Amino acid sequence: MAFWQARDFLFCSVCGTLLDFDSVRSASCPLCGFKRKAKAIEGKETRYAVTDEDIRRELKIEPFVTLESAPKMDVIVQRVVVDETCPKCGHPQLEYHTKQLRAADEGQTVFYECPECRHNFKVNN
After folding, report:
1. What angle do CA 73, 75, 80 make, to 5 degrees?
2. Which residues form a coiled coil (predicted)?
3. Which of 9, 36, 51, 77 has CA 20 to 30 A from 123's CA?
């Protein structure tokens, strides 16, 4: 028995069409009439895998742009400034950004950096 026959037991051996179970004793091909006994199929398992690429192809969605495939650009990030005093040098303003590091029902972590002395620290809210 060929490898594909052992693996593709739900398909017609003649034309490859999916078999229909027309009775509890046999399955037949709706295209060419080939019949396979149900005993030959009984107890076998069918498995298949669907990848993200398969889903995108089926839904006609363009692939995601990854950092590796994205064009290289110089990115300038400007941080938000807050009127808070630096605990190290006393500068009157700090730059900050936030990030969710803990569970979604807990507050974000705020990261501060002094533009003068580059002292940085974080506060968990």
Report:
1. 165
2. none
3. 77
Structure-derived torsion over alpha carbons of residues 102, 107, 113, 114, reported in degrees to the nearest 10: -160
What is the residue-level pLDDT of the chain in tens, covering all 125 positions? 444 444 577 788 888 888 888 888 888 988 898 898 888 877 777 676 788 888 888 888 876 666 566 666 666 666 789 999 999 999 999 998 888 887 778 888 888 999 999 999 998 86
Q: Per the annotation, does 19 bind a ligand?
A: no
- pTM of the entire predicted model: 0.39
Q: Where are the domains of the chain?
A: 3-48, 80-124
CATH class of the domain at 80-124: mainly beta
46 touches 10 (CB < 8 A): yes
> Does residue 58 have a known ligand-binding role?
no
